[in-house]
Known about the structure:
2 copies of one chain form a homodimer.
Chain A: H1 2-12, E1 17-19, E2 42-44, H2 49-62, E3 66-69, E4 86-89, E5 96-100, E6 105-108, H3 114-122, E7 126-127, H4 139-145, H5 152-155, H6 158-161, E8 162-168, E9 174-178, H7 190-194, E10 203-210, E11 212-213, E12 217-225, H8 228-240, E13 247-252, H9 253-262, H10 271-276, E14 279-287, H11 290-306, E15 313-315, H12 317-328, H13 330-336, E16 341-343, H14 352-365, E17 369-375, E18 380-386, H15 390-406, H16 422-428, H17 431-444
Parallel strand pairs in A: 2-4, 3-4
Antiparallel strand pairs in A: 1-2, 5-6, 6-10, 7-11, 8-9, 8-10, 12-14, 12-15, 13-14, 13-17, 16-18, 17-18
Helix pairs in contact in A: 1-2, 14-15
Keywords (chains A, B): FAD, Flavoprotein, Oxidoreductase
Protein name (chains A, B): FAD-binding protein
Pfam families (chains A, B): FAD-oxidase_C, FAD_binding_4
Amino acid sequence: MADMAARLSGIVGxxxxxxxxxxxxxxxxxxxxxxxxxxxxxxxxxxxADQVAQLLKTATELGIPVTARGSGSGLSxxxxxxxDGLLVSFERMAAILxxxxxxxxxxxxxxxxxxxxxxxxxxxxxxxxxxxxxLSASIGGNVGTNAGGMRAIKYGVTRNNxxxxxxxxxxxxxxxxxxxxxxxxxGYDLTQxxxxxxxxxxLVTEAVLKLQPRLPHQGTVLAPFADLDEVARAVPKVxxxxxxxxxxxxxxxxTMGAITYRAQLQLGIPDEVKETAHAYLVVQLxxxxxxxxxxxxxxxxxxxxxxxxxxxxxxxxTAAGKLIDAREKAxxxxxxxxxxxxxxxxxxxxxxxxxxxxxxxxxxxNNTFVIGCGHAGDGNVHLAVLQKDSEVRERVLHGxxxxxVHLGGAISGEHGIGRKHAERFAALTDxxxxxxxxxxxxAFDPAGVLNPGVLFD
Amino acid sequence: MADMAARLSGIVGxxxxxxxxxxxxxxxxxxxxxxxxxxxxxxxxxxxADQVAQLLKTATELGIPVTARGSGSGLSxxxxxxxDGLLVSFERMAAILxxxxxxxxxxxxxxxxxxxxxxxxxxxxxxxxxxxxxLSASIGGNVGTNAGGMRAIKYGVTRNNxxxxxxxxxxxxxxxxxxxxxxxxxGYDLTQxxxxxxxxxxLVTEAVLKLQPRLPHQGTVLAPFADLDEVARAVPKVxxxxxxxxxxxxxxxxTMGAITYRAQLQLGIPDEVKETAHAYLVVQLxxxxxxxxxxxxxxxxxxxxxxxxxxxxxxxxTAAGKLIDAREKAxxxxxxxxxxxxxxxxxxxxxxxxxxxxxxxxxxxNNTFVIGCGHAGDGNVHLAVLQKDSEVRERVLHGxxxxxVHLGGAISGEHGIGRKHAERFAALTDxxxxxxxxxxxxAFDPAGVLNPGVLFD
Lengths: 457, 457
């Protein structure tokens, strides 16, 4: 134990290896609900990629489980350490190394937050368009879970916007994958394999991000509909229009009430509309010019009216920003409302009504309260489950995931499997695929030290 | 031998297993230059995914090397079979299984050609936007090499537009990866891992493709520049404009002469401009409305004039179509001109002038003729090498690849490593990465029967 600590502090320096009482509470958990905190044996705060590589080499040699931590905003327990393990926190590796305006890429360390990056990019008229709800999230964490968010319908998710990585392997080598280019056909795509692997294959020490021009004008349309069926029918039409929406979200009536109340947001929707509107569609557009934006917003409005919207509200700057912000913070609203768990199953978007019907049935059968909203454009449904009894809750969660998988979906759209869902992942996935993934894991991590218990049961 | 044939024909039926003289010349090669044809021992023409899985199971059991073939239009020899091997041709698995207009996806078998698919999608106002030069290419082949093409700057390459796969493993299981959704964080992304693996990890039996609205209006601007440096400086400005170009190509003066001559294409460029223009930039835009297209085309024209273009030509429909078509067929022009090899190194796009300077130096040192054009928007440079002496040619190719890798690029942007470049791939790639890829290969294909000699030396 003391010997291990000596080895590890030899790598990062005594000041940057924490043990025992020096390890703060924050390191014991991420934001996953109903997942007890666990303090790790060691927390290392490396400063360089070489230090990360040496930490992994040592961990493999000594058989110490290793968990990576960005800003700890994950929702599936993938950053919750092991009691006997080493937590590698990237807080000291948070530099924006380069903003390359010729190739339109940024090179960053994993600890950089989305918020810091966005501030810097704005100065150059550029944007890294991946936009998960939590802007304190780190790029490293985003890569780990393949973070998505509302703008996925236009710009894709993390894996569509990361061009290359530097990563430390469990065996101590540092490799570089991809680069400042958008295409390659030169061997297996290790960048894509590491993205979404939740710290089980390698530890990312640098990322090359694809940037987009920052379009200056944004407009938001809010349309109440009678029910989710109508919303689901409207979505493909909005997408097929070619207007290229930035955001297409649905919010159910109850969630709309909760998030607008929490944000003290008045949207000017009359009570008689609220009473009969059980599902809301939010469409945000962006454009290079104010004129074109106005035309596009008007066109979306007409389109939605023709598709059965009870009314169409064009939200002005502040109200629109607040609504999107409130929607982003739905997780916190759910948490405050006493949610015991949240899930983010993804399904083919046209199956949204069928899925929600199953959700209602499962909730009712189990006397459980389930509310939600979701990325209607991409079928990613966020549900909050309120059920204190852990046995009943397990049954509900299993039922919800099963319903999603049965409709051709997947357990998680953007939160990840983590520790929380490893057992369910094993139960609901083709064993041939799980076995194959385990063999891939072993190809990267022969000693099995990288985040054991995450992804695999 | 007879026993093997009996086993294989037991799976696909005697009519669909070819041996000996029944095997046509076409099955002996793809379109890779300077790569001798090899007739395989067996050609199987399966009709179902189950048959493919059974073929692989049997091949693993008996140790028969297996090569997959789509339409044979590959340029790196990845579809060239082994003399002692089994070629699995997907010509009988060429159905478009579903065009889903709600979820905007198509489900297709691997033998479907881009051309057939495009014809069908046009009826629905949709498009599968990946656009490599050769439209007879099959989707299966596109998945194998992660095919790119001119529209990558707007829509990405194959890996950005394939949402899921059904694939047969070497061990005989059929797995499904991904699905009709654009995001997931549910285990390793096997879809992405199989894309670009050139038949060395699994055989694709079905693909779920992401579709886009088909925008009706396209406009093309051709701008001659003094040299490539000016072109390279203009490209980031065109991209940063937010106009979202569909195509940004550069064509050098010589290649422009060759392809326009071959296509008998008159672009109306005066001789005095031609004499001083050593590099051309082609920008194609698309739009929902004719008015907006006109505005955008005018804006690009002004932008390019301000960036040093000698003139700006807005090409009318036919001329534009012919130029893009001629550019697509540059490979055939190069072949007819006697090219002994072609390469498609990718580099960060801002490094294009430096790269081309190295190219000129290498060509001169080796008394070799090297001409080219390329995807200026994404740094993917296509070069034709005219050098009959295979030893000198090898030296030139190695030098070109080395120059690309040295600038932070990769050996191939879209053609793949195949058989042709396996040795160079091994020589120019970090051994830690090659070893890792070999271990991944083994995780999929323990007996090493899938396309041995491709990718790995």
